[in-house]
Amino acid sequence: MDKRNSQRVTFTTTVEVLYKDKSITGTVENLSMKGLFVKTDTTVDINTHISLQIHLSGLTSKMSLEAEGVISRIDDSGFAISFKKMELDSYIILKNIIFYADDELHEYIEFL
User: Fold this and answer.
1) Ranked by mean pLDDT, which of 44-48, 56-60, 100-104 comes out on top?
2) Which domains does the chain have, with CATH numbers?
């Protein structure tokens, strides 16, 4: 049985994770209001606190979503992060990504 209680959307973009004073670059596979999954070959430890920056770019601007979280799950293709802290601007961006996921999300990002 799936224990998730928030909408998870497929969303592919680059993410940088600050993990134990080193930067890990990976690909966001999916995300929700509670966290995301990072595809990467880099090995990490579960329950480690991290900072992250998701890179978003459109035709006219570049922006990023920044948050703090904890590594909550690890598998062969990467790791999941649960969000623990996020500034209001990043929260609004995340909320809009999730909201518009059923529509043309990429058109929304390009508009920004």
Assistant:
1) 44-48
2) 9-111 (2.40.10.220)
